[in-house]
Amino acid sequence: MQAIHAQKSSPKEQDLESLYLSVRNYTEEICAPLEIEDYIPQPSVDVSPPKWNIAHTTWFFEEMILKQFAAGYQEFDPNFGFLFNSYYNSLGNRTARNNRGDLSRPTVKEVYQYRKYVDEKMCEFLRQNLSEEVRELIVLGLHHEQQHQELLITDLKFTLSCNPLFPVYKAENIICEKGETQTASKDKYISVKAGIYEIGFQGTGFHFDNELGRHKVYLHDFEISSQLITNAEFLEFIEDGGYENFRFWHAEGWDWVDQNEIKNPLHWHYKSGEWFHFTLGGLRKLNPETPVCHVSFYEAAAFAEWKGVRLPTEFEWEAASDKFGWGLRWEWTASAYLPYPNFTKPPGAVGEYNGKFMVNQMVLRGASVATSPGHSRKTYRNFFHPPLRWQFTGIRLAK
Protein backbone atom coordinates (compact mmCIF):
# COMPACT_ATOMS: atom_id res chain seq x y z
CA MET A 1 0.00 0.00 0.00
CA GLN A 2 1.02 3.54 -0.72
CA ALA A 3 1.33 6.48 1.59
CA ILE A 4 -1.33 9.07 1.06
CA HIS A 5 -0.91 12.78 0.48
CA ALA A 6 -4.00 14.93 0.20
CA GLN A 7 -4.50 16.94 -2.95
CA LYS A 8 -4.02 20.68 -2.83
CA SER A 9 -7.39 21.37 -4.43
CA SER A 10 -10.18 19.21 -3.04
CA PRO A 11 -13.58 18.71 -4.70
CA LYS A 12 -16.20 21.26 -3.77
CA GLU A 13 -18.50 20.34 -0.90
CA GLN A 14 -21.46 19.66 -3.20
CA ASP A 15 -19.34 17.25 -5.29
CA LEU A 16 -17.71 15.38 -2.42
CA GLU A 17 -20.76 13.44 -1.30
CA SER A 18 -21.41 12.03 -4.77
CA LEU A 19 -17.72 11.15 -5.13
CA TYR A 20 -17.79 9.46 -1.75
CA LEU A 21 -20.85 7.38 -2.61
CA SER A 22 -19.46 6.48 -6.03
CA VAL A 23 -16.24 5.07 -4.59
CA ARG A 24 -17.97 3.31 -1.73
CA ASN A 25 -20.56 1.74 -4.02
CA TYR A 26 -17.88 0.40 -6.37
CA THR A 27 -16.35 -1.59 -3.52
CA GLU A 28 -19.68 -3.30 -2.98
CA GLU A 29 -20.05 -3.90 -6.73
CA ILE A 30 -16.75 -5.80 -6.66
CA CYS A 31 -18.14 -7.95 -3.86
CA ALA A 32 -21.53 -8.55 -5.52
CA PRO A 33 -20.58 -11.91 -7.17
CA LEU A 34 -19.24 -13.33 -3.89
CA GLU A 35 -20.85 -16.03 -1.79
CA ILE A 36 -20.75 -15.68 1.98
CA GLU A 37 -18.03 -18.36 2.16
CA ASP A 38 -15.78 -16.25 -0.08
CA TYR A 39 -15.51 -13.41 2.43
CA ILE A 40 -13.36 -15.11 5.08
CA PRO A 41 -10.48 -17.33 3.78
CA GLN A 42 -6.90 -16.02 3.98
CA PRO A 43 -4.54 -18.58 2.41
CA SER A 44 -1.49 -16.31 2.62
CA VAL A 45 -0.21 -13.55 4.89
CA ASP A 46 0.11 -11.35 1.80
CA VAL A 47 -3.63 -11.35 1.07
CA SER A 48 -6.56 -10.19 3.17
CA PRO A 49 -10.09 -11.61 3.17
CA PRO A 50 -12.79 -9.53 1.44
CA LYS A 51 -14.56 -9.05 4.77
CA TRP A 52 -11.48 -7.47 6.30
CA ASN A 53 -10.88 -5.22 3.27
CA ILE A 54 -14.40 -3.82 3.25
CA ALA A 55 -14.33 -3.35 7.02
CA HIS A 56 -10.90 -1.68 7.04
CA THR A 57 -11.89 0.90 4.43
CA THR A 58 -14.91 1.73 6.59
CA TRP A 59 -12.69 1.88 9.66
CA PHE A 60 -10.64 4.58 7.95
CA PHE A 61 -13.62 6.95 7.67
CA GLU A 62 -14.82 6.23 11.18
CA GLU A 63 -11.38 6.51 12.80
CA MET A 64 -9.81 9.30 10.74
CA ILE A 65 -12.86 11.45 9.99
CA LEU A 66 -15.95 10.88 12.12
CA LYS A 67 -14.26 10.22 15.46
CA GLN A 68 -11.94 13.17 14.94
CA PHE A 69 -14.21 15.83 13.42
CA ALA A 70 -17.92 14.90 13.74
CA ALA A 71 -19.34 16.36 16.95
CA GLY A 72 -21.16 13.82 19.09
CA TYR A 73 -20.34 10.87 16.87
CA GLN A 74 -21.01 7.48 18.46
CA GLU A 75 -18.78 4.69 17.14
CA PHE A 76 -20.50 1.62 15.74
CA ASP A 77 -18.63 -0.93 17.85
CA PRO A 78 -15.68 -0.18 20.17
CA ASN A 79 -14.02 -3.48 19.20
CA PHE A 80 -13.78 -2.62 15.52
CA GLY A 81 -10.92 -0.17 16.04
CA PHE A 82 -8.74 -3.08 17.12
CA LEU A 83 -10.07 -5.60 14.60
CA PHE A 84 -9.72 -3.50 11.46
CA ASN A 85 -6.68 -1.29 12.04
CA SER A 86 -3.93 -2.14 9.56
CA TYR A 87 -0.49 -0.60 10.17
CA TYR A 88 -1.21 2.44 12.34
CA ASN A 89 0.79 1.89 15.50
CA SER A 90 -0.06 5.40 16.69
CA LEU A 91 -3.75 4.45 16.78
CA GLY A 92 -3.30 1.46 19.07
CA ASN A 93 -3.09 -2.31 18.90
CA ARG A 94 -4.52 -4.29 16.01
CA THR A 95 -5.28 -7.78 14.78
CA ALA A 96 -2.16 -9.58 13.55
CA ARG A 97 -1.98 -9.41 9.75
CA ASN A 98 -1.82 -13.18 9.35
CA ASN A 99 -4.89 -13.66 11.57
CA ARG A 100 -7.38 -11.60 9.56
CA GLY A 101 -8.93 -14.74 8.10
CA ASP A 102 -9.55 -16.18 11.57
CA LEU A 103 -12.30 -13.66 12.27
CA SER A 104 -15.55 -15.57 11.77
CA ARG A 105 -17.15 -12.85 13.87
CA PRO A 106 -18.23 -10.13 13.33
CA THR A 107 -20.29 -11.67 10.56
CA VAL A 108 -20.38 -10.45 6.99
CA LYS A 109 -23.87 -9.12 7.69
CA GLU A 110 -22.56 -7.10 10.62
CA VAL A 111 -19.70 -5.70 8.56
CA TYR A 112 -22.15 -4.47 5.94
CA GLN A 113 -24.24 -2.94 8.71
CA TYR A 114 -21.07 -1.18 9.84
CA ARG A 115 -20.51 0.18 6.32
CA LYS A 116 -24.09 1.39 6.09
CA TYR A 117 -23.93 3.10 9.48
CA VAL A 118 -20.66 4.89 8.70
CA ASP A 119 -21.85 5.86 5.22
CA GLU A 120 -25.01 7.44 6.63
CA LYS A 121 -23.01 9.39 9.21
CA MET A 122 -20.46 10.42 6.58
CA CYS A 123 -23.15 11.73 4.22
CA GLU A 124 -24.59 13.81 7.06
CA PHE A 125 -21.12 15.09 7.83
CA LEU A 126 -20.34 15.89 4.18
CA ARG A 127 -23.31 18.27 4.01
CA GLN A 128 -21.70 20.52 6.60
CA ASN A 129 -19.35 23.41 5.92
CA LEU A 130 -16.05 21.52 6.03
CA SER A 131 -12.56 22.90 6.27
CA GLU A 132 -10.06 22.35 3.49
CA GLU A 133 -8.05 20.09 5.80
CA VAL A 134 -11.02 17.79 6.38
CA ARG A 135 -11.99 17.70 2.70
CA GLU A 136 -8.45 16.72 1.80
CA LEU A 137 -8.49 13.96 4.40
CA ILE A 138 -11.75 12.59 2.98
CA VAL A 139 -10.29 12.51 -0.53
CA LEU A 140 -7.29 10.75 0.95
CA GLY A 141 -9.63 8.11 2.35
CA LEU A 142 -11.29 7.62 -1.03
CA HIS A 143 -7.94 6.98 -2.74
CA HIS A 144 -7.10 4.63 0.10
CA GLU A 145 -10.34 2.75 -0.62
CA GLN A 146 -9.46 2.58 -4.32
CA GLN A 147 -6.22 0.89 -3.36
CA HIS A 148 -8.22 -1.67 -1.42
CA GLN A 149 -10.55 -2.15 -4.36
CA GLU A 150 -7.55 -3.38 -6.33
CA LEU A 151 -6.49 -5.51 -3.39
CA LEU A 152 -10.01 -6.96 -3.16
CA ILE A 153 -9.66 -8.21 -6.73
CA THR A 154 -6.10 -9.47 -6.51
CA ASP A 155 -6.48 -11.02 -3.07
CA LEU A 156 -9.68 -12.75 -4.14
CA LYS A 157 -8.04 -14.14 -7.28
CA PHE A 158 -5.24 -15.66 -5.21
CA THR A 159 -7.70 -17.12 -2.71
CA LEU A 160 -9.87 -18.69 -5.42
CA SER A 161 -6.77 -20.03 -7.16
CA CYS A 162 -6.03 -22.16 -4.11
CA ASN A 163 -9.28 -24.06 -4.68
CA PRO A 164 -8.68 -27.15 -6.88
CA LEU A 165 -12.11 -26.62 -8.45
CA PHE A 166 -10.87 -23.31 -9.99
CA PRO A 167 -14.12 -21.47 -9.19
CA VAL A 168 -15.41 -18.61 -11.35
CA TYR A 169 -15.70 -15.14 -9.81
CA LYS A 170 -17.26 -13.55 -12.87
CA ALA A 171 -17.44 -15.13 -16.30
CA GLU A 172 -17.24 -12.00 -18.46
CA ASN A 173 -14.95 -9.30 -17.19
CA ILE A 174 -11.75 -7.62 -18.40
CA ILE A 175 -10.12 -8.77 -15.19
CA CYS A 176 -10.55 -12.33 -16.43
CA GLU A 177 -7.70 -11.51 -18.89
CA LYS A 178 -10.01 -11.32 -21.87
CA GLY A 179 -9.48 -8.51 -24.34
CA GLU A 180 -5.98 -7.76 -23.07
CA THR A 181 -4.01 -8.34 -26.25
CA GLN A 182 -1.76 -5.47 -27.23
CA THR A 183 -1.89 -3.36 -30.34
CA ALA A 184 0.94 -4.38 -32.65
CA SER A 185 3.77 -1.88 -32.90
CA LYS A 186 6.25 -1.52 -35.76
CA ASP A 187 8.95 -0.24 -33.43
CA LYS A 188 9.63 -2.75 -30.70
CA TYR A 189 11.92 -0.33 -28.90
CA ILE A 190 11.57 3.42 -28.49
CA SER A 191 14.73 5.54 -28.35
CA VAL A 192 15.06 8.20 -25.67
CA LYS A 193 17.85 10.75 -25.86
CA ALA A 194 20.28 11.44 -23.06
CA GLY A 195 19.55 14.49 -20.98
CA ILE A 196 18.22 15.91 -17.76
CA TYR A 197 14.66 14.90 -16.92
CA GLU A 198 12.37 16.05 -14.12
CA ILE A 199 10.87 13.24 -12.07
CA GLY A 200 8.00 13.33 -9.60
CA PHE A 201 4.59 14.93 -9.20
CA GLN A 202 4.00 18.53 -10.15
CA GLY A 203 0.81 20.57 -10.31
CA THR A 204 -2.58 20.27 -8.62
CA GLY A 205 -4.65 17.22 -7.91
CA PHE A 206 -4.30 14.22 -5.67
CA HIS A 207 -0.94 12.54 -5.25
CA PHE A 208 0.82 10.33 -2.73
CA ASP A 209 3.66 11.72 -0.68
CA ASN A 210 6.11 9.26 -2.21
CA GLU A 211 5.67 11.10 -5.55
CA LEU A 212 7.18 14.27 -3.98
CA GLY A 213 9.60 16.11 -4.31
CA ARG A 214 10.10 16.65 -7.92
CA HIS A 215 13.76 16.53 -8.89
CA LYS A 216 16.14 16.34 -11.83
CA VAL A 217 17.92 13.19 -12.97
CA TYR A 218 20.42 12.66 -15.77
CA LEU A 219 19.63 9.75 -18.08
CA HIS A 220 21.97 8.30 -20.69
CA ASP A 221 20.66 7.35 -24.12
CA PHE A 222 18.41 4.33 -23.74
CA GLU A 223 15.74 2.33 -25.49
CA ILE A 224 12.55 1.04 -23.91
CA SER A 225 10.13 -1.52 -25.33
CA SER A 226 6.85 -0.18 -26.65
CA GLN A 227 5.02 -3.35 -25.57
CA LEU A 228 4.88 -5.61 -22.56
CA ILE A 229 6.33 -9.11 -22.73
CA THR A 230 3.65 -11.59 -23.78
CA ASN A 231 2.87 -15.09 -22.58
CA ALA A 232 4.34 -16.48 -25.81
CA GLU A 233 7.64 -14.67 -25.22
CA PHE A 234 7.83 -15.80 -21.61
CA LEU A 235 7.03 -19.36 -22.68
CA GLU A 236 10.20 -19.29 -24.82
CA PHE A 237 12.15 -18.51 -21.65
CA ILE A 238 10.58 -21.50 -19.88
CA GLU A 239 11.18 -23.87 -22.79
CA ASP A 240 14.80 -22.73 -23.04
CA GLY A 241 15.38 -23.83 -19.46
CA GLY A 242 15.15 -20.37 -17.93
CA TYR A 243 14.07 -21.71 -14.55
CA GLU A 244 16.90 -24.27 -14.51
CA ASN A 245 19.83 -21.98 -15.33
CA PHE A 246 21.26 -20.10 -12.35
CA ARG A 247 23.19 -17.75 -14.64
CA PHE A 248 20.07 -15.66 -15.33
CA TRP A 249 19.10 -15.14 -11.71
CA HIS A 250 20.07 -12.93 -8.80
CA ALA A 251 21.42 -15.03 -5.94
CA GLU A 252 18.29 -14.38 -3.86
CA GLY A 253 16.12 -15.13 -6.87
CA TRP A 254 17.84 -18.44 -7.52
CA ASP A 255 17.40 -19.41 -3.86
CA TRP A 256 13.70 -18.51 -4.16
CA VAL A 257 13.32 -20.66 -7.29
CA ASP A 258 15.12 -23.58 -5.67
CA GLN A 259 13.42 -23.46 -2.28
CA ASN A 260 9.90 -22.99 -3.69
CA GLU A 261 10.32 -25.19 -6.79
CA ILE A 262 9.20 -22.34 -9.05
CA LYS A 263 8.85 -23.43 -12.69
CA ASN A 264 6.41 -20.95 -14.23
CA PRO A 265 4.45 -17.77 -13.43
CA LEU A 266 1.82 -17.88 -10.72
CA HIS A 267 -1.53 -19.34 -11.86
CA TRP A 268 -0.05 -21.22 -14.86
CA HIS A 269 -0.97 -24.92 -15.14
CA TYR A 270 0.30 -27.50 -17.61
CA LYS A 271 -2.37 -30.09 -18.40
CA SER A 272 -2.51 -32.73 -21.14
CA GLY A 273 0.25 -31.08 -23.15
CA GLU A 274 -1.22 -27.56 -23.00
CA TRP A 275 -0.72 -24.47 -20.86
CA PHE A 276 -3.66 -22.99 -18.98
CA HIS A 277 -3.89 -20.13 -16.54
CA PHE A 278 -6.32 -19.38 -13.75
CA THR A 279 -8.35 -16.21 -14.21
CA LEU A 280 -11.28 -14.70 -12.36
CA GLY A 281 -13.32 -16.32 -15.11
CA GLY A 282 -11.98 -19.74 -14.15
CA LEU A 283 -9.27 -21.89 -15.71
CA ARG A 284 -8.66 -20.95 -19.37
CA LYS A 285 -6.23 -21.78 -22.13
CA LEU A 286 -3.21 -19.51 -22.07
CA ASN A 287 -3.56 -16.71 -24.62
CA PRO A 288 -0.09 -16.33 -26.23
CA GLU A 289 -0.68 -12.65 -27.11
CA THR A 290 -1.74 -11.55 -23.62
CA PRO A 291 0.94 -9.76 -21.54
CA VAL A 292 2.52 -12.16 -19.08
CA CYS A 293 1.08 -11.73 -15.59
CA HIS A 294 1.82 -12.58 -11.97
CA VAL A 295 5.61 -12.67 -12.19
CA SER A 296 7.95 -11.68 -9.38
CA PHE A 297 10.78 -9.17 -9.66
CA TYR A 298 13.14 -12.14 -9.62
CA GLU A 299 11.41 -13.64 -12.67
CA ALA A 300 11.24 -10.31 -14.50
CA ALA A 301 14.96 -9.68 -13.94
CA ALA A 302 15.89 -13.24 -14.97
CA PHE A 303 13.86 -12.95 -18.16
CA ALA A 304 15.60 -9.67 -19.02
CA GLU A 305 18.99 -11.27 -18.39
CA TRP A 306 18.05 -14.18 -20.64
CA LYS A 307 17.12 -11.69 -23.38
CA GLY A 308 20.45 -9.89 -22.97
CA VAL A 309 18.80 -6.63 -21.89
CA ARG A 310 17.49 -5.28 -18.56
CA LEU A 311 14.54 -3.77 -16.72
CA PRO A 312 14.10 0.01 -16.95
CA THR A 313 14.73 2.19 -13.93
CA GLU A 314 11.70 3.99 -12.60
CA PHE A 315 13.19 7.26 -13.87
CA GLU A 316 13.56 5.89 -17.40
CA TRP A 317 10.01 4.56 -17.22
CA GLU A 318 8.58 7.93 -16.19
CA ALA A 319 10.62 9.88 -18.75
CA ALA A 320 9.38 7.60 -21.53
CA SER A 321 5.83 6.95 -20.29
CA ASP A 322 4.14 9.28 -22.77
CA LYS A 323 5.66 7.27 -25.63
CA PHE A 324 3.95 3.92 -24.96
CA GLY A 325 0.64 2.52 -23.74
CA TRP A 326 0.46 1.23 -20.18
CA GLY A 327 -2.14 0.14 -17.67
CA LEU A 328 -2.49 -3.60 -18.33
CA ARG A 329 0.12 -4.67 -15.79
CA TRP A 330 2.05 -3.17 -12.92
CA GLU A 331 5.54 -3.08 -14.44
CA TRP A 332 8.61 -4.04 -12.45
CA THR A 333 11.49 -1.57 -12.58
CA ALA A 334 15.14 -1.98 -11.58
CA SER A 335 14.77 0.74 -8.92
CA ALA A 336 14.76 0.18 -5.18
CA TYR A 337 11.93 1.91 -3.35
CA LEU A 338 13.61 4.94 -1.77
CA PRO A 339 12.55 8.49 -0.86
CA TYR A 340 12.89 11.33 -3.32
CA PRO A 341 14.98 14.38 -2.30
CA ASN A 342 13.43 16.35 0.58
CA PHE A 343 10.84 13.65 1.28
CA THR A 344 9.08 14.24 4.59
CA LYS A 345 6.46 12.17 6.37
CA PRO A 346 3.06 13.81 6.85
CA PRO A 347 2.18 14.55 10.48
CA GLY A 348 0.08 12.19 12.55
CA ALA A 349 -1.03 8.64 11.78
CA VAL A 350 -0.98 9.19 8.01
CA GLY A 351 2.79 9.58 8.22
CA GLU A 352 3.10 5.89 9.12
CA TYR A 353 1.80 4.73 5.78
CA ASN A 354 4.85 5.20 3.61
CA GLY A 355 8.27 6.13 4.87
CA LYS A 356 8.61 3.10 7.11
CA PHE A 357 8.18 0.81 4.10
CA MET A 358 11.10 2.25 2.14
CA VAL A 359 13.34 -0.78 2.60
CA ASN A 360 13.84 -4.07 0.73
CA GLN A 361 11.19 -3.31 -1.89
CA MET A 362 11.24 -2.63 -5.63
CA VAL A 363 9.26 0.01 -7.50
CA LEU A 364 6.55 -0.85 -10.01
CA ARG A 365 5.07 1.71 -12.37
CA GLY A 366 1.85 2.15 -14.33
CA ALA A 367 -1.38 0.43 -13.34
CA SER A 368 -3.21 -2.81 -14.08
CA VAL A 369 -6.57 -4.09 -15.26
CA ALA A 370 -7.52 -4.34 -11.58
CA THR A 371 -6.71 -0.69 -10.79
CA SER A 372 -9.76 1.44 -10.12
CA PRO A 373 -10.60 4.03 -12.83
CA GLY A 374 -8.74 7.30 -12.43
CA HIS A 375 -6.48 5.97 -9.71
CA SER A 376 -3.12 6.06 -11.50
CA ARG A 377 -0.84 8.57 -13.19
CA LYS A 378 2.67 8.43 -14.61
CA THR A 379 4.28 9.54 -11.33
CA TYR A 380 2.49 6.85 -9.25
CA ARG A 381 4.99 4.65 -7.40
CA ASN A 382 3.83 1.20 -6.40
CA PHE A 383 6.16 -1.10 -4.47
CA PHE A 384 6.45 -4.74 -3.46
CA HIS A 385 9.02 -7.16 -2.14
CA PRO A 386 10.92 -9.00 -4.93
CA PRO A 387 9.31 -12.47 -4.53
CA LEU A 388 5.70 -11.26 -4.52
CA ARG A 389 3.59 -11.94 -7.59
CA TRP A 390 -0.06 -12.12 -6.55
CA GLN A 391 -0.62 -8.67 -8.03
CA PHE A 392 -1.17 -8.15 -11.78
CA THR A 393 2.56 -7.67 -12.46
CA GLY A 394 4.29 -7.78 -15.84
CA ILE A 395 7.51 -6.98 -17.71
CA ARG A 396 8.74 -4.15 -19.93
CA LEU A 397 12.36 -4.23 -21.11
CA ALA A 398 15.02 -1.59 -21.67
CA LYS A 399 18.54 -1.43 -23.06
Kindly summarize this structure in a few lines:
This protein has 399 residues and is of the alpha+beta class. The protein is 32% helix and 12% strand. It has helices at residues 13-31, 50-69, 80-83, 108-126, 132-161, 231-239, 251-260, 297-307, 314-320; strands spanning 189-192, 195-199, 215-219, 222-225, 268-271, 274-279, 282-285, 330-336, 362-366, 382-384, 393-394.
Q: What is the architecture of the largest domain at the second tier of CATH? A: Alpha-Beta Complex
According to CATH, the fold-level topology of the largest domain is paralog of FGE (formylglycine-generating enzyme)
Provide the number of structural domains.
Answer: 2
Helical residue percent? Answer: 25-40%
* N-to-C SSE string, H for helix and E for strand: HHHHHEEEEHHEEEHHEEEE
Which structural class matches the secondary elements?
Answer: alpha+beta
Name of the top-level CATH class of the largest domain: Alpha Beta
CATH superfamily of the largest domain: paralog of FGE (formylglycine-generating enzyme)
Question: What is the helix tally?
Answer: 9
- Strands in their spatial order, largest beta sheet: 10-9-8-11
Q: What's the count of strands?
A: 11
User: What proportion of the residues form beta strands (DSSP E)?
Assistant: 5-15%
Q: Give the radius of gyration.
A: 22 Å
Q: Which regions have little confidence, pLDDT < 50, spanning 5+ residues? A: 1-10
